[in-house]
Amino acid sequence: xxxQTPQDQYIKVGxxxxxxxxxxxxxxxxxxxxxxxxxxxxWLDNIFALAQYHRVYAFDMxxxxxxxxxDSQNYACDDWVRFLKSFMDVLQIExxxxxxxxxxxATALKFALMFPECLDKxxxxxxxxxGKETPIGFKLALIPxxxxxxxxxxxxGIAIAVKQAVYDLTTINKQFIEMLYxxxxxxxxxxxILKFLRTNAxxxxxxxxxxxxxxxxxxxxxxxxxxxHGQQDKLVPVAHAHVAAKNIPNAQLHIFDHCGHWASIEHxxxxxxLVLEFLAT
Length: 281
Prior knowledge:
The protein is built from twelve helices and ten strands. The chain has 281 residues and is α/β, with parallel strands linked by helices. The strands form two sheets. The protein has an eight-stranded mixed β-sheet with strand order 1-2-4-3-5-6-9-10, with helices on both faces.
């Protein structure tokens, strides 16, 4: 990972300077959505493979990566969905296939419900938005002062977070861990991730106003959907993937064994092949 990087481009989405990549010139229009605390480099093991057959966009969500992090920004799921729609509008993208991981998966699900006419296919990877359970670290981050201490960027803190996220640490190289720290240390990044957690979660887990509007309407999602999850995911239980598979009518489920929260990073070749086969049908 990080051996080759697409060219950074920037556009204004509303007032937010937004970093994005675009590769490929054929096939479907595909948009990659990172999760909370993520950034577009999280897709480096996937974007080149997907762009051989499709036109692929990835962008840093408002508050993440190298996009702006305005103090006034709200971080409810609906806000991420509206930002995604505005990103598409600025680039004149009328319809797209969405591939979302973690919080990006929740954004993709809510987009499918709010803007079904703009969605071709849906890929959910270790998706949030499907159950209330959260890890203890997320709950501790809700406590004023404690959250600031836990999320203060440091190499040790990043190493602990990565250990929680993946099944096998040898699948994550040192360069990517250094990138995680660099992004976490950018001005406003810590405040944005805390605001995201404190907006969408409480001590019981993800708030009902975040989860219920998605889970209660899964049966209305008509787009073909591929659900991918890691069997050993410590951040989003694999049971959440089964909720989606059971309730989305036109869905297929693939569980990676020996895999944590980052299926697209931990098993990139298998992930890419699975997604390409799904997009080709």
